Each structure stands twice: as structure tokens, then as C-alpha cells.
Amino acid sequence: MKKVIAALLSLVALRVVASPEWVNGEVVRVDQARNRIVLKHEYIPSIKMAPMTMPFGVVKEIPLDQYRPGDKVRFQIKVVDGTLDITVMEKLK
Fold first, then answer.
1. Cα–chain-centroid distance for residue 91?
2. What is the residue-level pLDDT of the chain in tens, covering all 93 positions?
């Protein structure tokens, strides 16, 4: 039974890695000093997270100085040690 569960979890993990999920949101606040951004985001199906406004960590490759409150964005996340970090983010038109 443990092997079956492990195999199913592996398949789910591969699916998430193979096709990253895009999430839409709106910038509320940018904190460049702490490399964080506060977003009002839609429901995130992969982690079953309700829509809300919350802070996210951001990888260093994302230029936070290009984002302002009110900007509409889409982003991809990964869970790192229980926190959500944005790995890719782009402005929507």
C-alpha cells in the first residue's frame, strides 16, 4: 500500500513540475528590501488555497522594481519549507 501511495504522489508531483500552474493576481504592495510582494490572488487549485491577499517571497531573478500597486499579474509558485515563493511573474495587459 505504501508503494502505491508513493507512486501516486510521484505522478502528481511530475504533473505539477511538467505543467506549472499560472495564477492571476493584483499587486497590493512591493517590499524590495525583504524581496517580498503582497498580492490579492485568485483560487490556487494545486494547493486548494482560497482567494485572498497575502505576502509571497520572490526569487531574486524577478525585478520587483518593475511592479506597482494595482498592476495585474500572473505568476507561478512553489512551496519551499511551508512558504509560497513566486518563481515566475509577468504583468498582464
1. 14
2. 666 555 545 555 554 445 689 999 999 999 999 999 999 999 999 999 999 999 999 999 999 999 999 999 999 999 888 888 999 999 998
